[in-house]
Design a protein that fits this description.
This protein has about 120 residues and is an alpha+beta fold. About 40% of the residues lie in helices and about 20% in strands.
């Protein structure tokens, strides 16, 4: 089975979505929470009438907590993957795959977004 080349995607820089709250549990793992604005006029109106707010919540494991703490708006996914491999004694391919999985999961839940630095841009 051929592996997928993740290198081009790993130049992206993850950034936290505004309004994301973090809490540390008793085990030192992070829990993320963010209010989500529903789509559709009817749903938004009903939520406003009933004072209901939808939230997305995610509980991270040790690797996910490490990943989240590396997000600073300057470091690329490749930088984070390299440090994840070092911290958790993972093979390079394993750490890259983990970073892609975390990124996808957090993006789907609108907790992060990605930015690509322009050539010559200092981050």
């Amino acid at each position: 089975m051929n592996s997928i080349n993740l290198q081009p995607a790993l130049v992206a820089i993850p950034e936290m979505a505004p309004g994301t709250e973090t809490h540390c549990d008793d085990a030192g793992m992070l829990q993320l929470r963010r209010a989500v604005v529903p789509r559709g006029l009817i749903v938004r109106t009903l939520n406003r009438w009933f004072h209901h707010t939808d939230h997305v919540e995610v509980r991270l494991d040790a690797q996910g907590t490490f990943f989240w703490r590396q997000i600073d708006g300057r470091r690329s996914l490749e930088d984070i993957a390299r440090d994840l491999a070092h911290c958790f004694t993972l093979a390079e391919s394993e750490s890259r795959e983990a970073v892609v999985v975390f990124t996808k999961m957090l993006m789907i839940r609108q907790l992060i977004h990605l930015r690509v630095a322009l050539p010559g841009e200092r981050v």
